[in-house]
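Dear Dr. H.,

I hope your travels went smoothly. While you were away I took the liberty of generating a structure for the chain from your last submission, since the lab meeting agenda had it listed for discussion. I wanted you to have the full record in hand beforehand rather than looking at slides cold. The sequence, exactly as received, is reproduced here:
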Amino acid sequence: MLLAIWMWVDPTFSLSMVQDEASYYTGVYLILFVGTLLLIVGFLGCAAAISESQCSLVLYFCLLLAVLVAQISAAVWMYANNDKLVELVRYTVKTTVQSEYGSIEGRTETFDAIQSGFECCGASGPSDWAGSKYNNPQTESLGLAISSPEQSYKIPASCCKGDPKQCLDAQTAVASGPISELIYSEGCTEKLLYTSRKSMIIFLVLLVAIGSVEFFGLVLALILCCAIRAVNTYKN
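The corresponding predicted structure, in token form, is as follows:
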């Protein structure tokens, strides 16, 4: 549940992980649902242990086993599709810079937050903005280059170090000229990939930790169920 809340409030997740925002929030809802299910299963396990009900313990065991299998499947899928996720991040950032920034409000605000927060600019660097739709709003087919080496282009204010008002002149660059020191020089793709890898490791570690606790819960449920059966047999 904490992971779902983090993904909901952190604007960098929606851009770095998926191109389709609807799919992204569907994933957030799914994680939130699994977290809620785990909470319910936990309460069910406590109630079953207190009431010493074999039926409730069996139900608890089955639900917990299903959740554990789902978590293992998710971890295996993430590991097997790591390369695809990396390519997806690269494609998403490049597409945002080339054609979505400045024309889609949500993407613009999110990428501004990324550039300011990660202290980066563009996909691979500030020069990426030269051939973007942000500078060429009438162009349909875009590349990360411009035709004339003397042509100037705008760089978003979120690329500025410190107060954007202090680097108004630096926001206008020439294709063949150097980038001002007041502009972040690193691209956002590698920084997002680094953050995504760290988040992935944290997520997998959490899955392993939670899975270990769940496995321990399965063992305890079996032991308790056998103990209750033995007591009932002895009473009869």
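Two observations you may find useful: The helical segments are 2-9, 11-17, 21-51, 54-80, 82-100, 105-118, 188-235. The two ends are 44 Å apart (CA to CA).

With kind regards,
E. W.
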